[in-house]
Amino acid sequence: MSSIAVSISNLSFTYKGESQSCFDHLDLIIQQGERFGLFGPNGAGKTTLMNCMTGLLAPNQGSIRLLGHDVYQHKKSVNKLFGFVPQDFSFFQELTAAENLAFFGAWSGLHSSAIKKRTTELLEILGLADASDKQVQYFSGGMKRRVNLAIGVIHDPLVLFLDEPTVGVDVQTRHAIINYLKALNANGTTLIYTSHQLNEAEELCDNIALIDNGKIIAHNTLNQLLAEHKEEGLEGLFINLTGKAYRN
Amino acid sequence: MYKLWATIVKDLRILTRDKVGLTLMFIMPIVLAIVITAIQNSTFELVNANKVPLLLCNRDTGDASRQLVKAIEKIGMFDLKQVTVQATETEIVDRMHAKDALVAIIIPKHFSDKVNEKANSIASKALNSFGVRQDSLHQATDSLSPITLFYHPVLQQSFRSSIQGALRSALQIVENKQILKSLYFSLNEKELPGDFETEIVNNQVAINEVPISRNGSRNIPNATQHNIPAWTIFAMFFVVISLGSSVVREKLNGSFVRLKTLPTNYIVALVSKQITYLFVTLLQTIVIFSIGAWIFPSIGLPALNLPADGWGLLIVSVICGYCAVSYAICIGVFAQTQEQANGFGAVSIVLLAAIGGILVPSFAMPASFQGIMKLSPLHWCLEAYYGLFLEGGKLKDVVLNILPLLAITLIIQLATLYALKRKNLI
């Protein structure tokens, strides 16, 4: 198996009807087992890049390979390899947590017995066991975030894409989610994470890429980037490289 | 297969927790069927069992007007209320405004004289033309003074026509009687014997009404037999509100983004919805037909007679339901928002129901709509059901209604697939 989790080569992407391209000839390599953080100001192209990596958007040019498979040519087999935790709550509010996991587990290719086992495990780990029979629409924001995460990992993916997985949650939930993600990574899951919570990113990520105006402006381990730019934290580094001007 | 099963279970769970959707799909059509059938049944009874209140002002003192009043009474359609000869038109109209009567008739002065004159004139002409007798012709000095018929504006055209027909028939009897009397008197120089008069005038040929039927049954169609199939079809197609918006909701909320990243084609979700909602439409037919057959008689409405061909009924129901579900999914796939799906879905179903003969019988449609009507899937559903329910037909008798319905369903499915491909959803 390739030791590269994601390989992006010569990627160009422009939204339909727009003249300005999001990326132009972008290259990026993410190794397996990394806790990779993708950061940038609003409109920098983080979500678009993540959508390209998960096959939700097709690039105009270039290729993206996930664990050696072309994301667009082998969509079905690639989709089994990764999990995705979108920023929005991506489940059915009318169903309970267990029912959501049963449905998404089936769509992830798991069979009934495996789904039952994983559902019990995940609800226990993420502190949702007591509320497993309650419709998700009656959950708190933090509980919904945990359900969102549980669905993304039900099939034990090798690569996990996380788009702002802790937005709007309390300290306890954030702490629990970050710890769980670290545990997943320790078991071999590659994390590809994007967020505006830079303190949290410092705690979670070991490798970082900063993206701005469709270009990767910095990519290295966090420590090396801080040393290189003589900054003490990610926030200072971020401002240093992307400036203080408002972004839309 | 397990993915499909899991998706069907998910859809059923969401459906059964959607109280508003369930109400729209089950309670609303049942209420509609009961209300419309009850109203149509009472309309039927208004004409056939109940009597239309009629004010009668007879300003004539002769025999013909008395005979006319008797003839009107004999029709049995009216609840006759005589008003005094002195009553003015304004008073009569005021009483009608007070809903004392829906119809009023004023028989003018000298009505009998004019009828007699006309009868004598016709009798003379007839005798002269037969060569029985050469006679100086009786000349009817004036044309007959018209009888004034006031009607309340709430009476629809069809009722007015029916009332006018009944009154004309009564007038005809009186006029014929006078002509007969006059002829008899001219030939025999004596009055027409009473029993002979009755025998000639009243011994009309009976009209034996026979509803046509393929299985030879003589069940007389009633409001239930017409309405239950029609409103069941309407209910089936009204799943567009629940199903169309369910498809849009799934497209718009985050779950769809996640579904697109999973190793399962979105077609599975649509097949699941087709199966789930086909089951819903069949449940609707079972519930509404059962209410028609067993509950209606207990609330004073005519019972629904189920067709003899049970398998035919099942197959027609499945095809109608599948067409309704396909239409709802198509609306959901094309719509960008739930408001679009609900608004367009509901309005389009009402329009398709109107041009399809659900709201107004297809034979009563203007000629320009007779062609457009064939584009409505509800029209073919209704024709197929009527073939079974009203004509006592079997499945083979309604094949020509099922084929266009299948063709329309296929076109809807192809349009859905095209939209899914175009939107990169499959």
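The interface with chain B takes residues 54-56, 76-77, 79-80, 82, 84, 86, 88-92, 94-95, 99, 102-109, 111-112, 135, 151-152 of chain A (CB under 8 Å).
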